[in-house]
Design a protein that fits this description.
The chain is built from 8 helices and 16 strands. The chain has about 280 residues and is of the alpha+beta class. Fe (ii) ion (FE2) binds next to loops.
């Protein structure tokens, strides 16, 4: 494990290719003075952990606003309660797809930029949140694979992810998910910075123009590579932990947990700054 100090941002790396723990105080973080360094670091590390920083909802909103353009939820609230308790979250079905590798907002014109989660209630079992660094996974591809995927395009849709958790949906449900639309995206996202990351996940249906078994084989192999140990970080929550990820260079998923345990995470996010291209 390494410990490093960059000007005033204090951090230690959790794993070589992904995730750092930030060691600054809450006051230092809320001051906004570290925002540029945080943005620079997270583009390299994918995930930043603020151990037991204990942000209140208002503080989490305030901190998120120092990092980019704050993006409220669709219903207008600043904070989204991630809970399977219907009294807390009336749209709990929306969370079923979060158990499978994905990035947030892939179907939007701009995927979201950063997302932050704070743990409020722990699960009784399970419930880790896992991440993978899709920049590092791209960089580690063989020259042959980089050439293979360079110009490939994939059809993504929300209804593809539906079949992960509901293999025999009612027609109404299928039509509703199809109504969200589909979107053709490159496998390789060349960012304005010049860095490249992989665009995969449970919305990926098929590679355009490829034999369908070859397509399934390739998408599965790339997902297995991108989420493998060297690029993977699993966060086991303590109450008060805040975890932030760069949604443009990572994928994430929740691990299963007791649906009746009251596990509660609060999420805030920033708007995306560039389309997938
Ligand atoms: Fe998500």
């Amino acid at each position: 494990m390494t410990t490093a100090t960059r000007t005033r941002l204090k951090f230690e790396n959790a794993k070589p290719n992904i995730a750092s723990r930030i060691l600054n105080t809450k006051e230092e973080l809320l001051s906004g003075e570290l925002s540029a360094e945080i943005r620079e670091l997270i583009e390299q590390r994918g995930v930043l952990v603020f151990p037991q920083i204990n942000f209140t909802d208002d503080e989490q909103v305030e901190f998120t606003k120092t990092l980019g353009t704050f993006m409220p939820e669709m219903a207008g609230q600043d904070v989204y309660a991630i809970s399977l308790d219907e009294k807390v979250n009336p749209n709990r079905d929306y969370l079923k797809g979060s158990l499978y590798w994905h990035a947030d907002g892939t179907m939007n014109a701009l995927p979201i930029g950063y997302a932050l989660l704070t743990s409020k209630v722990l699960p009784t079992w399970g419930g880790n949140t896992e991440f993978c660094n899709t920049y590092a996974a791209y960089d580690a591809l063989s020259a042959e694979d980089k050439a293979l995927v360079a110009n490939l395009r994939v059809m993504h849709s929300a209804w593809t992810s539906l079949f992960y958790y509901d293999p025999e949906p009612g027609q109404d449900m299928l039509e509703r998910m199809m109504g969200i639309g589909d979107k053709e995206l490159p496998v390789v996202w060349t960012h304005r910075s010049g860095r490249k990351s992989l665009v995969l996940g449970c919305t990926a249906h098929h590679v355009l123009g490829m034999d369908w078994t070859e397509s399934a084989r390739l998408l599965n192999r790339l997902r297995e590579h991108a989420t493998s140990e060297p690029f993977h970080y699993a966060h086991e929550w303590s109450v008060g932990d805040c975890v932030m990820w760069d949604n443009t260079g990572t994928m994430h998923r929740a691990r299963p947990y007791d649906p009746d345990c009251g596990r509660l995470l609060t999420r805030t996010k920033t708007g995306g700054e560039e389309p997938i291209a």
